Amino acid sequence: MFKTGSFDRTVEVVVVGFGNAGAVAALTAADHGREVLVLEKQPADRRRPNSRFSGGLFLCPSDVDAATHYMNQLVRLNGEVAETDPAVVRAWAGATADNVRWLTGNGGTVVQVADHGEHEFIEGFESISIYKPDMGEHPGTGARGWGYGLYEFLQGLAHERPIDVMYGACAQWLLEDAAGRVTGVRVRDAAGRTTDLGASRGVVLACGGFEFDPSMKLTYLKAFPTHFYGNPENTGDGVRMAMEVGADLWHMNACAARLVGHFPDSGYPGGVPLDLWGIEGMSGIKILYGDFGTGAGTGRRAAGPLRVADDVAVDVAGERVSGGIFVDRYGRRFTNELYRTHTLYYEVTDFDSHRLLYPKIPSWWVFDEARFARGRLVPDFYGPGGPLGEIRWSDDNHAEVERGWIRRAGTLDGLADQCGMDREALRGTVDSYNAGCRDGNDEFGRLPRTLVPLSDGPFYAVRMWPGGPNTQGGARRNADAQVMRVTGEPIPGLYSAGEFGSVYGMLYPSGGGNIAECIAFGRIAGDSVATRPH
Q1: Cα–Cα distance between 196 and 469 in angstroms, integer?
Q2: CATH placement of domain 260-278+321-468
Q3: Most exposed: 6, 231, 263, 413, by fewest CB within 10 Å?
Q4: What is the pLDDT of residues 195-235, one digit of tens each?
Q5: β 459-471/170-176 pair status
Q6: Which ranges in the chain are annotated with CATH 3.90.700.10?
Q7: Residue from 437, 458, 407 nearest 321 by CA
Q8: Is the omega angle on the peptide bond into residue 225 within 30 degrees of 0, that is, cis?
Q9: pTM above 0.90, yes or no
Q10: 9-254+472-531: CATH homologous superfamily?
């Protein structure tokens, strides 16, 4: 939006969004001596950015060259077209490799929990080390760190600097001068009043994705509906503002997603991650990534990081754990339930052009009494069922049966009727799965030690939808975090960080990728807006 005349207030740097990316960008610019103002859409007493919903793991490559190669393969489509510029990938690798040093240098403590990326068939995966933050007590668990603790730590660092934060301030339009330079932001407060804020050095967009904008999801994503868990106020504001000043877009059809629950009458409008194995709390993370030990150090390696697929269905006592199976809307199994956490979404996007529907949307998680009795079906350390308490879930799952969120029947036929599945198809699916358990040879390749037959009943099912933590799309950025025009050059005075215009495309490198990018590109954006000629 072209702006003439004076501003209501002018500072050097305006940062839009106060999640992890916005906090890091703001404190980095402030450490360069710049006057920084942060605009936060949410009120001060109701802040719930995606960063706060997150599990908080972040990656930090041990080898920049190997990590660059790994990421360059992940952003290639069909071996031909690269979704992300090589220079941006290199900047990502270099900056994320400094994440541990930067956090610990600012007083944080972290623990390494894995020494590999998610895609073990791609050279360089072994360079993707994953860390858990260990700052602050995690509400409800007594544990330290995780996403809630990391968010509070980064907010604390920002508050130690002379950074001004305006809460309840919704950025509406980017303001430009006659030469096309971004010079400020038009903001609307909770009362509907508008203010024009000048930014003499530039604006950093760190305002998240479009997880809760139905129109954008329908237009850009591969399947509909998709239910994300995170901040319901991530409605694509940054996308619209950037488009209006001529920004190019990328990765709009990409998201790091899987299958999630969705319970509209809970009061929470988004998706809810599900705990398939009943071990995804503190014990589950030990199984997935190794034992943290006690007394976290400063970037020390945890004892014996493990590969996910090796031990996921065996708890800390060595007991085999029943996790159940996934079936489509007709009752047919379609995947290995030891799925890659951030790519299962793509398996459910096939559209039946004859029936005019997605056969796997919705899908169903089918399990037996062994899993039901093991504990709550929703994780308590991240997501809407975590410390923020956006959705309440009972410890024994009985209240959720009464509410209809969990379907229960004494027989498979009864369960099929409740879920609208074909009886014969569901019975055949379970018979085939149980036979594979007995033989130790699963048709979808699940490891023998994870194959626990479904019992004689009662049986349970939870309806699932595509969804996950966040979208990846937004304005294209360069290696200096500058937002790019559709004509190929940077937009002067405009920068981005975090999941808004993420560097990740179709494939996500590993758990912790987004938080790592928040820390890394938050620093790049903060450095650039503070030091580049203007």
Answers
A1: 32
A2: 3.90.700.10
A3: 6
A4: 999 999 999 999 999 999 999 999 999 999 999 999 999 99
A5: unpaired
A6: 260-278+321-468
A7: 437
A8: yes
A9: yes
A10: FAD/NAD(P)-binding domain (3.50.50.60)
